[in-house]
């Protein structure tokens, strides 16, 4: 681990929400907080029209200085560094992610149509990055009822790659002293997708739902043993993964999902479930790339 947590800043409300989340996480973990701004990043609703590169860089340094002061004000002992990069924001963030344990970005709420036409920096980074990313949309809620907070993790397969998602979720819950809610959605198989070899296992388990509960329990067992201090609740429900996860994460401090790395990434290759969660979840969403 590098010990660096990087947050991308553009001065928007969403990026400041990401800053607050990242600063609290860095304080908790003892990591260095790196604040990054790419000079080509100029949202029209945030930055004024700037004349010349010198003025643009001056504005960027001002944004980072204010952000650093804000972060340091959240608690003593926080190590904060700032960096202005003269590069397109996607390239700058991807480069910074290489030596970061975690990349934190702001995420805007978009409508159904906008969600599929979006050219946002966050989505373009997400489809290419190979490190964990947390996307934050709303400001950190102060004074929330702490016992209601929970880390929610989506479990959609039980093969080895999925352990990366579970490891991240269990570690986050353990570090924050929060319970974990593991969620598995399932659907009735079609006549074309039904696996003959699965039928005996389903029958032995007592039906499809019971079988999925069994799969979830088995997937969680190694992590339960590794993190015995984490209180775990298992939830299995029929429905689409995005709908089930959204219904189960209204009180979440963090929602954790996986994303398979695409050999040839395109703007839409982040998965329909992850895409839906990014645009509709009110909780910060951690997206963990799967190595296989």
Automatic annotation (TrEMBL):
UniProt cross-references to InterPro entries, sorted A to Z: Rossmann-like_a/b/a_fold, Universal_stress_UspA, UspA
Record domain UspA: where: 5-137, 150-289
Q: Can you name this protein? A: Universal stress protein
Annotated Gene3D superfamilies = HUPs
- Tell me where the transmembrane regions lie: none
PANTHER family xrefs: STRESS RESPONSE PROTEIN NHAX (PTHR46268), UNIVERSAL STRESS PROTEIN UP12 (PTHR46268:SF6)
Which family is annotated?
Answer: Belongs to the universal stress protein A family.
Q: CDD domains from the xrefs?
A: USP_At3g01520-like
């Amino acid at each position: 681990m590098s010990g660096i947590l990087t947050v991308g800043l553009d001065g928007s409300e969403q990026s400041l929400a990401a800053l607050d989340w990242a600063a609290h996480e860095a304080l908790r973990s003892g990591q260095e907080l790196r604040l990054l701004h790419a000079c080509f990043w100029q949202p029209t609703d945030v930055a004024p029209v700037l004349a010349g590169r010198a003025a643009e860089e001056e504005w960027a340094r001002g944004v980072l200085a204010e952000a650093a002061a804000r972060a340091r004000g959240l608690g003593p002992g926080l190590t904060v560094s700032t960096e202005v990069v003269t590069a397109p924001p996607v390239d700058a963030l991807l480069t910074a992610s290489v030596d970061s344990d975690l990349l934190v970005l702001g995420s805007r709420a978009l409508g159904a149509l906008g969600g599929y036409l979006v050219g946002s920096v966050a989505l373009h980074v997400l489809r290419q990055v190979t490190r964990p990313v947390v996307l934050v949309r709303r400001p950190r809620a102060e004074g929330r009822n702490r016992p209601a907070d929970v880390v929610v993790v989506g479990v959609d397969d039980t093969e080895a790659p999925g352990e990366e998602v579970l490891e991240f979720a269990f570690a986050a819950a353990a570090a924050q002293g929060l319970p974990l809610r593991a969620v598995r959605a399932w659907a009735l198989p079609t006549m074309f997708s039904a696996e003959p070899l699965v039928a005996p296992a389903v029958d032995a388990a007592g039906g499809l739902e019971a079988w999925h509960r069994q799969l979830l329990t088995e997937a969680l067992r190694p992590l339960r043993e590794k993190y015995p201090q984490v209180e775990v609740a298992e939830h299995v429900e029929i429905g689409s993964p995005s709908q089930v996860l959204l219904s189960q994460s209204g009180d979440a401090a963090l929602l954790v999902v996986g994303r398979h790395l695409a050999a040839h990434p395109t703007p839409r290759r982040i998965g329909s479930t992850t895409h839906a969660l990014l645009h509709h979840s009110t909780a910060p969403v951690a997206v963990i790339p799967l190595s296989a």
